Amino acid sequence: MEKLSYAKAGVDTHAGDRAVDLMKSAVEATHTKDVFGGTGGFAGMVDVSALKEYRRPLLATSTDGVGTKIEIARAMDIHDTIGQDLVGMVVDDIVVVGAKPLLMTDYIACGHVEPERIANIVRGIAEACQKVNTPLLGGETAEHPGVMGADEYDIAGAATGVVEADELLGPDRVEEGDTLIAMSASGLHSNGYSLVRSILKHSGWTLDRDVPELGRTLGEELLEPTMLYTAACLEMKEAVGGQLHALSHITGGGLGANLSRVLPAGLAGRADRSTCPVPPIFPLLMQLGGVSDQDAEDTWNMGVGMVAVVKAEAAQEVMRISSRHGINAWHLGEITKDPGGAEGERRISGTKGVQGGAALLRGNWKLQ
């Protein structure tokens, strides 16, 4: 009988060690003064002595992946950009409640460990963590031969942050008369790629196709990393204090579904679509796939990546801070009493299991 081994079963532990060696410097570059211990341990640790200064610290946590955008990365054989998508999807959900990220971890499952590819993925995560001043404290790379194809992989991440209880952002703070400030997206971010891939399949367009209106290939556009909002949002909170009432990260479900989640029952966020400069990738995909305006806005961010709900007098400062961080911002609308819908408006409420306020979308998207 043939003698079996872990290697013959398809798991190459030496390749895993090689991947760790390749990514180690990138991971360590994210470590702040609060990180306790080095890399390679069973658990990452961070010194939270500073929390003793909090009156009532609340821990916030979030976990996510990047969905089928990974298939675009695999097809393009470019693996060092989706890490920023992962960080954006996880850490920017934490900042929505006003929390400062303390740490992040990642998980990669693959059919076969190819050290350079794994290291490139983690390097992208680490570089994005540096941008939002969040230590990448640890992770796991799991080889699943026979379950996943040799070139297949998936990634996920989790993060933890902290916020003072009486500084928590959310529906309880939102008031009638507040202003909605939109912050631009860098593109599709990492939502709706199952629809994107279906459009490409049925249209026959390939990822290496040069698209003049995009100024690059279709694949390059689809791999554009997610905009990171954490640093800008934390600065807004510091600058305007209690005048920042809520934040909404515009991810799966689009503007209406995500905005309504941070509003209280009885109030509505009246948002004017015509104020939004829609990046050209959206009308292009809509035309290629025959996607309706409603399906598009229920799937993609349409160029709005984050929305701040602020007192009217703080709006200009919030927009200035956003601009200093390289993020275009504009007046999107305002908070009103919920009229239950009006002619020419689309009312969205009760999404993601949240029974709160409503988003009222009016006007037409500014499709270029």
Automatic annotation (TrEMBL):
The biological pathway it contributes to is: Purine metabolism; IMP biosynthesis via de novo pathway; 5-amino-1-(5-phospho-D-ribosyl)imidazole from N(2)-formyl-N(1)-(5-phospho-D-ribosyl)glycinamide: step 2/2
Give its E.C. classification number: 6.3.3.1
Q: Which SUPFAM superfamilies match?
A: PurM C-terminal domain-like, PurM N-terminal domain-like
Q: Which GO terms describe its cellular component?
A: cytosol
Report which reactions are catalysed by this protein.
2-formamido-N(1)-(5-O-phospho-beta-D-ribosyl)acetamidine + ATP = 5-amino-1-(5-phospho-beta-D-ribosyl)imidazole + ADP + phosphate + H(+)
Question: One GO BP annotation here?
Answer: adenine biosynthetic process
Family membership: Belongs to the AIR synthase family.
Q: What is this protein called?
A: Phosphoribosylformylglycinamidine cyclo-ligase
Gene name for this UniProt entry = purM
